[in-house]
Amino acid sequence: MASLQAHIGALLVRARLKHKLHGLRDIATVRELWITPPYPIPPGIRVTPGHAGAIPGEWVEGSGAQATLLYLHGGGYFACSPKTHRPITCAFARAGFRVFAPEYRLAPEHVFPAALDDAYAAYRALLAEAPAENIVVAGDSAGGGLSVALMLRSKKVPPPAAAALFSAWTDLAATGDSLLDNNHSCAMFHGEDIGPSARIYLGDADPRNPLASPLYANLENLPPLLIHVGADEVLRDDSTRLAARARAAGVRVELKIWPVVPHAWQLAGALMPEARQSVNEAAAFLLEAAAAPRAAKLVANR
């Protein structure tokens, strides 16, 4: 059963954003919608501007980090930044991760595959600092799709230990039934806007290019995936179909569909218990995956 806070959060998102985003094509106006008061950094957490290789971003760290997390923010590939997603990256840092959130290039100034190139460069830089089995990836919305695309692009280098995907946008061809079925129930988006919005990032690229829309990719050999999505989202089927295809390809998948919550509700940790629970479940999943190789080595060396 969804919490009262989830119901209130969905209503607030609907009132603030849904009508403003509908049919909106002015990128500057969309970006302004995501400008919020600075997120208060929790005690014990450090946020430091920095780089992973040549890619700028933020390092978000607490004490006693057990793994490195590459966090890819959402925003449709044309909005948001590491700063807007500090509620999530700080929560992961408190859970035991050293987090790098890259400020990847945004469309329309930089179309596909610019964001993927930057995510890949950041991941390669992290590999120079830590073994792949101690690195995990996570992302929300566009950042969730970008996380899967990164792992597909990275097949010539060691994969991360696992990935967590929140409300992932994996089908830029916009073919899911939930675009229509959830058009009224979704607190944030209208289904008919998803395809045109994808064009801002795609430019002239094929929307079924697997590195833009990983739903259409060969998903074999991906690391374990945790996938969380809201039952009422127009993007629900981007997650459910990805989970089904990944499982069919032999990938370990944990899929959880949450009632009532709005798109990328993990950003609302100060309001919704579901947001805190989702991040905590993702953190436990990722830490378990990162710890498994170390545990196996200890057993082998006995």
Structure, explained:
- This protein has helices at residues 4-21, 27-33, 86-94, 114-127, 142-153, 178-181, 194-202, 236-248, 273-300; strands at residues 46-52, 55-61, 67-72, 97-102, 135-140, 163-166, 225-230, 253-258.
- The chain is an alpha/beta fold and 302 residues long.
- The chain has a single domain (4-300), classed as Rossmann fold.
- An eight-stranded mixed β-sheet has the order 1-2-4-3-5-6-7-8, with helices on both faces.
- Helix 4 (114-127) packs across helix 5.
- The longest helix is centred in the C-terminal third of the chain and has 28 residues, at 273-300.
- The protein is globular and about 45 Å long.
- 48% of the residues are buried.
